[in-house]
């Protein structure tokens, strides 16, 4: 189930509106975003940048290529794997309340669910699902997305249970705790755990625990509808085909949520500052497992190591990528600087079958904001 996860480190590694063009000359972030938009290949971008308490937000290019609607920070977009931080927060809160333990085997919480050749569900803990060390991979079937991409049925529904079943049809990538591999399916299992423990829907738990308290009124969690609500970016593939209408059913707790740059920034600032979790669970959030020299996974968050002026700076947050949309939400370790950048191109077919997924890497804009 590729194409529904984070923006790969390799992708990360590389026309403003008329009213903002002049400002770009003295603003390195605007200039870097301007290089991405228009001739850079992305139709549009929306950004929030913060330094201390000073916040700048702006749009570049177009939210909709057909209508030439200007992109603005009020536009919603599919946040893809930024969803995982919301889900991990709920799991960690439940751990802090004593409703579950991160050492619980998935077999205890979801008896009989993880069954497949080579799987040992009694050894797969909730912690390994959170930090991508469980060995549970995504569906390996290259035709998984055919209903959407080949048959053209963008409203097609694939339930999370079906995704899990198809993921477990092949052996695990490795024994639990012996390797690191990004797993959307692992987060579908965590969604099932949340519902088993709370006896309510994941959407309701996220609303009650996070969206409501933080006032994130423009963020929502669709289950199967392929349409985006309210003002939103349109997302495109590398050929310029509009991919906005696309059912998020298969993505669920791995990446189905929709938000704005302001809401995502507010959430990540609260989470990384320790406002949503007790100290013990905050430590679990930030317990890192390196996946390469470029970064590491925590519990629903990740780090990236940025080359900044001859040194390396580690930043915290999430990346996300799915049909038509790619995004980065990162903050410096001390929380003094932050950027949320959403772009409206990601090529799902290229992700699945090989090829170029985005026109240019967004890393220069991230470095301009955080270095």
List the helices and strands and how they pair.
Layout: H1 9-12, H2 18-24, H3 28-36, E1 44-51, E2 54-64, E3 69-70, E4 77-78, H4 83-96, H5 106-109, H6 126-130, H7 146-149, H8 160-167, H9 184-198, H10 202-214, H11 252-255, E5 258-259, H12 261-272, H13 279-285, E6 289-292, E7 295-297, E8 302-308, E9 311-322, E10 325-332, E11 337-343, H14 348-353, H15 363-370
Antiparallel strand pairs: 1-2, 1-11, 2-3, 4-5, 6-7, 7-8, 8-9, 9-10, 10-11
Helix pairs in contact: 2-3, 3-15, 4-9, 4-10, 4-13
CATH topology group? Beta-lactamase
Structural class by SSE content: alpha+beta
Tell me how many strands there are.
11
Looking at CATH, the homologous superfamily is DD-peptidase/beta-lactamase superfamily
What oligomeric state do the depicted chains represent?
single chain
CATH architecture: 3-Layer(aba) Sandwich
Radius of gyration: 19 Å
How many domains, in number, for the residues?
A: 1
Broad shape: globular
Which CATH class applies here?
A: Alpha Beta
Q: Strand arrangement, largest sheet? A: 3-2-1-11-10-9-8-7-6
SSE sequence, one letter per element: HHHEEEEHHHHHHHHEHHEEEEEEHH
Strand content: 15-25%
Number of helices: 15
* Biggest sheet record: 9 strands, antiparallel
In which range does the helix fraction lie?
25-40%
How far the N terminus sits from the C terminus, by CA atoms, comes to 33 Å
Q: Uncertain regions: pLDDT < 50 for 5+ in a row?
A: 13-24
Average residue pLDDT: 94
């Amino acid at each position: 189930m590729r194409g529904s996860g984070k923006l790969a480190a390799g992708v990360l590694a590389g026309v403003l509106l008329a009213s903002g063009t002049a400002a770009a000359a003295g603003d390195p972030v605007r200039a870097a975003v301007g290089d991405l938009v228009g001739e850079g290949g992305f139709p549009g971008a929306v950004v929030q940048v913060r330094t201390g308490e000073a916040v700048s937000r702006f749009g570049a290019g177009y939210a909709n290529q057909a209508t030439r609607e200007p992109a603005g920070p009020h536009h919603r977009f599919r946040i893809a794997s930024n969803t995982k931080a919301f889900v991990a927060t709920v799991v960690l809160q439940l751990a802090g309340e004593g409703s579950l333990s991160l050492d619980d085997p998935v077999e205890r919480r979801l008896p009989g669910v993880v069954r497949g050749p080579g799987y040992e569900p009694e050894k797969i803990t909730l912690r390994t699902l959170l930090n991508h060390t469980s060995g549970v991979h995504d569906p390996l079937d290259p035709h998984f997305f055919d209903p959407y991409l080949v048959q053209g049925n963008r409203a097609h529904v694939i339930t999370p249970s079906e995704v899990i079943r198809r993921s477990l049809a092949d052996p695990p990538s490795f024994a639990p705790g012996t390797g690191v591999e990004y797993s959307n399916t692992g987060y579908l299992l965590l969604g099932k755990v949340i519902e088993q423990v709370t006896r309510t829907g994941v959407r309701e738990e996220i609303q009650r625990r996070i969206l409501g308290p933080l006032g994130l009124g423009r963020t929502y969690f669709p289950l199967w509808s392929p349409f985006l609500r309210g003002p939103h970016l349109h997302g495109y593939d590398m050929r310029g085909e509009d991919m906005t209408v696309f059912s998020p059913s298969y993505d669920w707790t791995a990446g189905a949520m929709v938000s704005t740059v302001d809401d995502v920034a507010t959430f990540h600032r609260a989470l990384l500052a320790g406002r949503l979790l007790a100290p013990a669970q905050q430590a679990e959030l930030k317990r890192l497992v390196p996946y390469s020299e470029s970064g590491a996974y925590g519990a629903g968050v990740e780090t990236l190591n940025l080359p900044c002026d001859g040194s390396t700076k580690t930043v915290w947050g999430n990346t996300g990528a799915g049909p038509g949309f790619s995004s980065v939400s990162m903050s410096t370790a001390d929380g003094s600087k932050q950027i949320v950048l959403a772009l409206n191109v990601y090529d799902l077919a290229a992700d699945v079958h090989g090829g170029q997924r985005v026109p240019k890497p967004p890393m220069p804009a991230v470095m301009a904001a955080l270095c």
